[in-house]
Design a protein that fits this description.
Length: 273
């Protein structure tokens, strides 16, 4: 019996090592699969790294003489920051590049489609070869989606119009990048700010209050409830107080082209990106 026990003891480390190996392999596969799925979910909404890299070469050869390598060589325009004289969709950018600007200030360029797409990708990536280049669509179509099929205006307020159920988006174009807007639309839970989380409170008299948190300190919490009333609650008067980790907003079901249009509209709100 001692011999058998001794053999088992000697064989256990190998068994454990093998189990750890297969467990590690499984976890690596699971992580890789999750990353691949996440990347595929964004694939239709973004330009590829190859597009960005190719675009950087075309930009240096064709555009940097006037716009400079920094993208800020023309007054009122900063291509690296995505600032133009007016909001531009990807198609608008392509048209400006190929047809030029009136009065001879910028000649049109005769480029292949892949070169043209590359420059747009490089600009959208903020001149960062390893950056994220989000597709930006037509702002007018995006506004129609915002106010219609996308149902954004049923919760969000813009320029003094709309409900208070969700954050006011009047200046979202200057406080969020295209990549941040895209992430909010595709994965709302990953972009939810702590201050805007849904809350549930129960008072001593049994009243249940649900709403969106606006501010909180050690003793009080301020929120907008489901009836759009601004409330300030004293925590010591509450028997229950819960902050949800999940947003009320669901991932969008819009197509990739519609998401690009919606981003194009949101970028016009309070900014020139």
């Amino acid at each position: 019996m001692r011999v058998m026990v001794s053999k088992i003891r000697h064989r256990m480390p190998s068994f454990i090592s093998l189990s750890i190996f297969w467990l590690s392999a499984f976890l690596l596969l699971l992580t890789t699969t999750e990353q691949s799925l996440a990347q595929s979910a964004y694939a239709d909404h973004q330009y590829t790294s190859e597009d960005i890299e190719a675009g950087s070469r075309v930009y240096v050869a064709e555009c940097a003489l006037c716009h400079q390598r920094s993208g800020s060589g023309v007054d009122g325009v900063d291509l690296r920051l995505g600032q133009f004289r007016r909001p531009l969709s990807d198609n608008d950018l392509r048209e400006v590049i190929t047809t030029g600007v009136s009065n001879g200030r910028m000649p049109g360029l005769d480029l292949r489609q892949d070169e043209l797409d590359g420059i747009v990708a490089y600009i959208r990536a903020g001149f960062d070869p390893s950056g994220v280049a989000v597709r930006v669509g037509d702002a007018a179509s995006g506004q129609m989606l915002f106010e219609g099929e996308g149902q954004c205006s049923t919760c969000h307020r813009v320029n003094g119009e709309g409900p208070y159920l969700a954050p006011d988006l009047s200046d979202i174009g200057v406080v969020r990048t295209p990549a941040a807007l895209q992430r909010t639309l595709l994965e709302p839970s990953s972009a939810l700010l702590p201050i805007n989380r849904p809350v549930r409170a129960v008072t001593r008299d049994g009243q249940t209050i649900r709403g969106r948190r606006l501010n909180e300190d050690t003793y009080t919490v301020q929120l907008i409830d489901s009836e759009e009333r601004l409330l300030s609650l004293i925590k010591s008067d509450l028997v229950e107080y819960e902050v949800s980790e999940n947003p009320t907003m669901e991932p969008t079901t819009l197509s990739s082209d519609e998401v690009a249009d919606l981003i194009g509209y949101l970028l016009t709100l309070g900014g020139l990106r």
